[in-house]
Amino acid sequence: MEDGSSVEAGLVSNEGMVGIPVILGDNTTTTTAFVQIADSAMQIDANILKSEFDRGTALQSLLLRYVQGVYTQIAQGSACNRLHKLEGRLARWLLTVSDRLESEEFPLTQEFISQMLGVRRAGVTEAANILSQAGMITYHRGQIKILNGKALENTACECYQVIENEFARLLSNQPNKRQK
Predict the structure, then answer these.
(1) Is residue 63 a part of any domain in this protein?
(2) Is residue 72 part of a domain?
(3) Is 85 strand, coil or helix?
(4) pLDDT at 114
(5) Tell me, what's the pLDDT at 44?
(6) Which of 11, 20, 9 is nearest to 67 (CA)?
(7) Strands, DSSP E only, in the chain?
(8) In the chain, N or C terminus with fewer CB closer than 10 Å?
(9) Residue 54's closest CA among 8, 14, 23?
(10) Do residues 98 and 36 touch, judged by C-beta distance below 8 A?
(11) Is residue 9 part of a domain?
């Protein structure tokens, strides 16, 4: 936004890519991508990607299905941000980050989470306290650990499962089955 505020529209990890406009026929975007948690990534020249995409091979099919998944993530996320309580939204978001990282523990500050969810930090603090007191998560100095993923999944709004199932269906992945 003009005032510098932002909200997350989608989350990308090893299942996807940034730079979708390249395969959709453009070379600019109005959005910004930034790294939430440092890890590894690959980069490809946009012209090479577009050339390979235009060949109409399996890469094109896979990337188009990924775009459909992103569309679902953005549409469902928009509805979620408008219709669901912060506690359920936070649970959804933490589960999604955990799934993408394939880890139950990750470094994220409440300030950062508040930016991603488009809410005040105090709201994240309150929602995180509820999840913590219920034994689902712990957090301390920017470190979050999921203690009971099954309970967190039960607390998450329906949007978590809708998005996860759609990505699994489109990308032929199996949805995450939580043990706890």
Answers:
(1) yes
(2) yes
(3) coil
(4) 93
(5) 93
(6) 20
(7) 105-107, 137-140, 143-146
(8) N
(9) 23
(10) no
(11) no
In a domain, 39, yes or no: yes
User: Which residues partner with 107 through β-bridges?
Assistant: 143
Cα gap 100→167, rounded to integer Å: 12
We report the CATH number of the domain holding residue 30 as 1.10.10.10
- Taking the alpha carbons at both ends of the chain, their separation in whole angstroms is 39
Predicted local distance difference test score (pLDDT) of residue 179: 55
Overall number of domains in the chain: 1
CA atoms of 150 and 160, how far apart (whole Å): 13
Can you give the residue range of the structural domain that contains 160?
A: 20-171
Flag residues of the chain having pLDDT under 70: 173-180
CB atoms within 10 A of CB 7: 14
Any long-range contacts for 53-56 (C-beta under 8 Å, 24+ apart)? Answer: 53/22, 53/23
- Say if CB 96 and CB 160 are below 8 A apart: yes
Please give the Cα distance from 13 to 18 (Å, whole number).
9
